[in-house]
Amino acid sequence: MGGGGGSRHSVQSDINVTPLVDVCLVLLIIFMVVTPLLQKGIPIQLPTTDNPGKKPENEKQKLIT
Question: Got the DSSP string for 5-43?
């Protein structure tokens, strides 16, 4: 008869983390490759002015709330 023991079709309760580790490693490699490229930045041309005078220090700033 079907005495003790366990059933042959038991549910597996542990989680397979291998795909999670694979995805994390791929993301880590992608970030390691992309980060040095982002540090170089984008060359931009800053605006220039004809009047490089400084703003007077005693002028009060207007606070808008």
Answer: S--TTPPP-S---HHHHHHHHHHHHHHHHHHHHHHH---
Terminal alpha carbon distance of the chain: 83
Taken as a whole, the chain contains a residue count of 65
The shares of helix, strand and coil residues in the chain, as percent rounded to the nearest 5, are 35, 0, 65
Tell me the average confidence (pLDDT) per consecutive run of 10 residues in the chain, 65 residues long. 61 86 97 84 82 72 80
